[in-house]
Amino acid sequence: MENSSKEEYKIQSFDLETQQLLKTALKDPGSVDLEKVSNVIVDQSLKDQIFSREAGRICYTIVQAEAKQTNGNVFRRNLLNRLQQEFKAREETRKRSTQEWVCLVSFICNIFDYLKVNNMPMMALVHPVYDCLFRLAQSDALQNEEEVDCLVLQLHRIGDQLEKMNMQLMDELFNLLRDGFLLQEDLSSMGRLLLLEILEFRAGGWTLSETAQKYYYSEVTD
């Protein structure tokens, strides 16, 4: 019940016509234009960071409803096609707007988290997700707290799953983060704290001890 109320809540930020379109898609996907639905969800996700973190839940519900109703995958296909377009233009997006770029990364990672095939993450999304995270680990991005915050948030959310899909890439990513933490002089104190926390989080098997948790979260709130 909690999930559906969250979906309802997130949909309230749309105009009434779009709310109706999404509500129908969640219950009766065969009766609406699913390409339009996927575009509406992606467009909103690129503008609204909170929605970009929750949109995977809505997409998952529509995918499940369509599979049950018609055994089809029109929505998923359209969604992945649109994601591919946005992914290809990611560097232009980053240059244009950090906020839009951070929303795009959140959305792609959220789709990776929610849309499974036989209870496994989609292989097609593994490399795009890693590519986004590697971009966030470059020295110019590490200077930007918004990008570091996004990177750490995604690794908290999907790092464990992602590592199981390709441990070598995760090792390479964390080598970059370690180098950034140790060698990069222009990090903000908050950026440095976030990097230290995520290094410790992975070293602890994707979990933090209670002491570490108290330390980092009191530092962040201070």
UniProtKB/TrEMBL annotation:
Name this polypeptide is given: MIF4G domain-containing protein
Known function: Functions in replication-dependent translation of histone mRNAs which differ from other eukaryotic mRNAs in that they do not end with a poly-A tail but a stem-loop. May participate in circularizing those mRNAs specifically enhancing their translation.
Subcellular location as annotated: Cytoplasm; Nucleus
Listed SMART domains: MIF4G
GO cellular component: histone mRNA stem-loop binding complex; nucleus
Record flagged with keyword Iron: no
Domain MIF4G: 3-205
Assembly information from the UniProt record: Interacts with EIF4G1, EIF4G2 and SLBP; probably tethered by SLBP to the 3'-end of mRNAs ending with the histone stem-loop, it also interacts with EIF4G1 which is bound to their 5'-end.
Primary localisation category: cytoplasm
Record family assignment: Belongs to the MIF4GD family.
MF GO annotations: identical protein binding
Record keywords, A-Z: Cytoplasm, Nucleus, Translation regulation
The species this protein was found in: Cirrhinus mrigala
Pfam families reported for this sequence: MIF4G
Domain of life: Eukaryota
SUPFAM superfamilies noted in UniProt: ARM repeat
One example of a Gene Ontology biological process annotation: regulation of translation
